[in-house]
Write a structure and sequence with these properties.
Elements: E1 6-9, H1 13-24, E2 32-35, H2 43-47, E3 51-53, H3 57-60, E4 65-68, H4 75-82, E5 91-94, H5 101-108, E6 116-121, E7 131-139, H6 143-150, E8 153-157, H7 163-191, H8 195-213, H9 220-227, H10 233-243, H11 246-255
Parallel strand pairs: 1-2, 1-4, 2-3, 4-5, 5-6, 7-8
Antiparallel strand pairs: 6-7
Length: about 260
């Protein structure tokens, strides 16, 4: 992937995070081109050496991997615009929710030819190299997408039927985790900490919990058991959270 040219269409939360994350991971910004209709979103990417343009065809020309990171309702127009310029050997990855692989294949077909392409669903933590990205190869093996997103965190190849579930757990899950943090910080303030100190405490605690669960054979219940002494504060707090529907609220939020 060292000399792979990457074109990114869209400089929003996903496209911008993808490009900035690659540069942060050590990828040469000169090998990345990002396009967006509004120049304002491109300024911060240009500052770190990424090639920028308002013409989507500039992201296609000469790129080995083309990332389409636009809103779902814009996808058909973007594909119509760029499809004639996509050549054999180029790979396309679409960061898009709510459009099936079959529908995307129909959009991508030109004179009976469908380019190699995948649906990918990362989260915004890819800017920091900590994304959980799901990859659905729709047409072909899509190795370049796997390599590129692998620089930005963990990549899991899944069947298309699991994409909605993956989105809920990892992409929407970023927001759900942030909501827990916000609630915990507010509780910390009520307990007497300054808000900034409470946030630092909660953030480090979550980092520690994640590190514990990353160990081979780790399970959340066994880690919970280690800190719940009989009659102690932790078990009283857990039981009170369950009384107010904590677990059920999380499950309902994921499966709604």
């Amino acid at each position: 992937m060292k000399d792979m040219h990457i074109g990114v269409i869209g400089a929003g939360a996903m496209g911008g995070s993808f490009a900035a994350g690659l540069v942060r991971a050590g990828y040469s910004p000169s090998l990345i081109t990002v396009t967006n209709p509004h120049e304002g979103r491109l300024a911060c990417l240009k500052e770190i050496g990424i090639n920028v343009s308002t013409d989507n065809l500039d992201a296609v020309s000469g790129s080995d991997l083309i990332i389409v990171a636009v809103k779902p309702w814009i996808v058909p127009d973007v594909i119509r615009q760029i499809r004639p310029a996509i050549l054999e050997g180029q790979e396309v990855a679409l960061i898009v929710a709510g459009i099936s692989g079959a529908d995307l294949s129909a959009m991508m077909e030109l004179q009976g030819v469908i380019p190699t392409f995948s649906i990918v669903m990362p989260n915004t933590a890819m800017r920091l190299g900590e994304s959980m990205t799901f990859l659905v190869p729709v047409h072909g093996e899509c190795p370049l997408a796997g390599e590129a997103f692998g620089m930005l965190g963990k990549v899991m190849k899944i069947e298309e039927r699991l994409l909605g579930a993956g989105t809920a757990l990892a992409s929407c899950g970023i927001a759900y985790a942030m909501r827990y943090v916000r609630a915990a910080v507010e509780g910390g303030v009520q307990l007497g900490f300054r808000a900034a100190d409470a946030q630092a405490i909660v953030t480090e605690t979550i980092r520690g919990a994640a590190a514990l669960l990353s160990q081979p054979g780790a399970h959340p219940e066994s880690e919970i058991d280690k800190v719940t002494t009989p009659g102690g504060i932790t078990i009283r707090g857990l039981n009170t959270m369950e009384q107010y529907g904590f677990s059920n609220a999380v499950i309902k939020g994921l499966t709604i």
